[in-house]
Amino acid sequence: PRKVRVHNRMNACSLSSAAFIQGGRKVFAAYDNVEGNPPWVPDITQRAGEGNDRTGSTGHRDTAGNAYIVGSTDATGDGGLSDNTNVLVTKLSPQGKERLYEVIVGGNGDDTGFDIKAAPDGSVFLTGSTSSPDFLVVNAAQPTFGQGFQDCFVTKIGPEGSVAYSTFLGGSGDDACYGIDLDTNGNAYVTGSTSSSELSTI
Q1: pLDDT of 38 over the 50 cut
Q2: Which residues contact 174 (CB under 8 A, 6 or more apart)?
Q3: What's the pLDDT at 96?
Q4: Which of 24, 136, 181, 194 could in theory staple to 175 by disulfide, Cβ–Cβ 3.0 to 4.6 A?
């Protein structure tokens, strides 16, 4: 399987296996105990056959020990999304015994989550790329797609799994965000790449 780095000794990877029911690649997470052995390895995307669930680049844990994994899926969830790639966010309980929520966000294009950070209050902030002009926008700083190949997106999800805000960040070129971090006031900072010449520079 292709392993990816995840914060706080949580490992996530995607794999192809006939052991998973009616699907393609599925996502799992594993915590290491003090001896380095994974005491649990839950399948976090048990979708009863809805397509390929696969990780993005990372996950994160909050101060209570809950785990958050961001990635992508071609499952459509309950929102009538297209069967292109959508953003998948999963929250697991500290010992991995319970999947606390799963959120799928996307539009009619391809959408991928690349990074996620948890705030002290249990909210999470995620970023990635979208080619969907109809990607979810809520309380958006940039409510419209930049009309290039793809835009960054930044989304905040509250402790119970509701979307607090979601916005495009991009212009007429190719824009993608790969990293996100928070300051002590809860402001989000993203890093990535752009070919949009009209974006502000400093």
Answers
A1: no
A2: 148, 149, 150, 193, 194, 195, 196
A3: 81
A4: 194
CB-hemisphere CA count at 13 Å for 45? Answer: 36
CB-based contact 137:166 (threshold 8 Å): yes
Which amino acid type is present at position 124?
V
- The token pair that represents 87 in the structure block: 């953003």
Q: Which of 60, 67, 72 is nearest to 27 (CA)?
A: 72
Q: Report, as an integer, the average pLDDT of 117-146.
A: 95
- Contact status, residue 14 vs residue 27, Cβ threshold 8 Å: yes
Joined together, the tokens standing for residue 85 give 């790639």
Evaluated on CA atoms 118, 119, 123, 128, the torsion sign reads negative
b/e per residue, 21-43, with b = 16+ CB within 10 A?
A: eebebbbbbbbeeeeeeeeeebb
Query: The whole model's pTM is what?
Result: 0.77
